[in-house]
Amino acid sequence: MPPATPGKAGNDFVVGDVVEVPGNMFGTVRFIGSVDGKKGTFAGVELHPEFSQRGKNSGEVEGVSYFTTTLPGAGIFLPLNKAVRRDSPPGSSYGAFPHTQRRVP
């Protein structure tokens, strides 16, 4: 069973942060932690709706659910060190993806 992550911080990221991900995409961090069978710390990201079709899952890996996505298949997992925090999303509207202010160290 995966660890619970609401409000959990990792490497200056918190669940709810908006991050850029490889492939010129962005989304919202929904999970931070370890993934069974993988080494390292991962960010589970729900891609912004315009990128949702490029997702790989709905927040699960090999039958284990780590988070859920609003749109089916809009989730990806990536090593935390590959995510880059975005201070504000592009454009004037971000709809269903609330932005969480940067955590002050």
From TrEMBL:
Record PROSITE patterns = CAP_GLY_2 (PS50245)
**Which Gene3D superfamilies does the record cross-reference, listed alphabetically?**
CAP Gly-rich-like domain
Q: Which residues form the signal peptide?
A: none
Q: Which Pfam families does the record cross-reference, listed alphabetically? A: CAP_GLY (PF01302)
Q: Which residues form the CAP-Gly domain?
A: 33-79
Q: Which InterPro entries match?
A: CAP-Gly_dom_sf, CAP-Gly_domain
Spans traversing the lipid bilayer: none
Q: Where is this region: Disordered?
A: 86-105
Please give the name of this protein.
Answer: CAP-Gly domain-containing protein
Q: Give the species.
A: Colletotrichum higginsianum (strain IMI 349063) (Crucifer anthracnose fungus)
